[in-house]
Amino acid sequence: MRFRPLLMTLAIVGTLGTVPPQLQAQTPSQNAAAKALFVEGRTFWDDGNFPDAEKKFRDALTRYPRAEQSDKTAFYLITTLIKLEKIDEARTEIRSFNRNYPHSTWRSDVEEKRITVGMPGTPFGGIYRFQGPLPVPIPLVSAMPPQVHAPGGYTVGLTFTPNASFEQEAFRVIIQADANKAILLAKERLKANPSDPVIVSNFSVIAGSGSPQAFPFFISVASDGPVPNTQTQARFWIGRLNNAQDAVGKAFIALTADRSLPVVVDVLNESNPVERNNFLKQVVQYPSLEKVNALERVFNATTVQPFRSQIVESAATIPESAAREFLTDVAMNEREYPVRLMAIHALGTRKDVDVKLLGDIMKTLPRARPTEPAVSPRAKKDLGAVRGQASRNANSN
After folding, report:
1. I want to staple 278 with a disulfide (CB 3.0 to 4.6 A). Which of 200, 207, 234, 239 is the partner?
2. Residue after which a domain boundary falls, among 314, 349, 382
3. Is residue 100 one of the residues assigned to a domain?
4. Which of 314, 330, 364 is the last residue before a domain boundary?
5. Tell me: the pLDDT tens digits for 94-138?
6. Which residue pairs from 363-371 have beta carbons closer than 8 angstroms and sit at least 24 positions apart in sequence?
7. CB 202 within 8 A of CB 214
8. Are strands 147-148 and 155-156 parallel, antiparallel or unpaired?
């Protein structure tokens, strides 16, 4: 009998030794590896590369299911699947999330996604007829369309307990029904609460609406918002606007042609290079020569060299002669040598530039000035390569 405690102890130890590795807590090195996979996935996600983001998030959860931030990774996997329109897989992951992470701080966010994909127990996914007074703020209810169509083909009445998830979904419905009206409502709500989660969580929907009011809206939020996170989110979505019917180009020209120019410049100065580059790609698609004038106004108004270089690089893709004239002016008169050299390179790749023009530009380059370096041997080599490319362009014509 005296050996029974020892046998029981050995039995317990033996049982613990058979616990599957995936149910055990991860080691610090495994946590670090899981975090690295998540960061890679989040980078893909931010760039809109959702297929690769899904692979990274799944890899992290498969290899390190008990990592410290596995609940966060699982949430991002759900959002990625929704982006990829893999709705059934997203629903499966939502069910798994609630089983695996019952006490996670991400549960409320996952519940919002449950509404988005119209899982059982939520009202959305069909045709909605709004009946009676709804338990949401009056401004939001008054903006509701009388009937909204969505996949599913059934009708439901809305009788819910007030909660943020419902308001967020209700506002998404408004954006899809009338984006311009929704943006006006968003402005009013952000005045009352600059970090209103109902509005901020729907920034992506506003950005994807294709409304010509989306760019001015995000500019105003990014410049006037007293909450840094809201401002950062607004700048992020400026670089990811839907350019339906050239909405971005039209709005950019309008805002830079009036007193809003300094505001636009300040916001774009604060945006990161990727956001600015994505935005400028949308602008140059607009089929109007006014875009060149708008780019030139912003170029002259900003002092941020990387941004000025990006504007020159964007203008280089515009085939019209107005862009060539802008680039020629920069190549001859710009005081910042890196920007000037980029303009010269851009001209060297164009079919409407001859060798004589490049020769005239090279003659304007100073040997040395207090405000800019002397032309180095490497720079001379670069300029010679540009001139040679222009010569080849001329011969090919």
Report:
1. 239
2. 314
3. yes
4. 314
5. 989 988 998 888 887 787 777 666 654 443 333 233 333 333 443
6. 364/332, 364/333, 371/335
7. no
8. unpaired
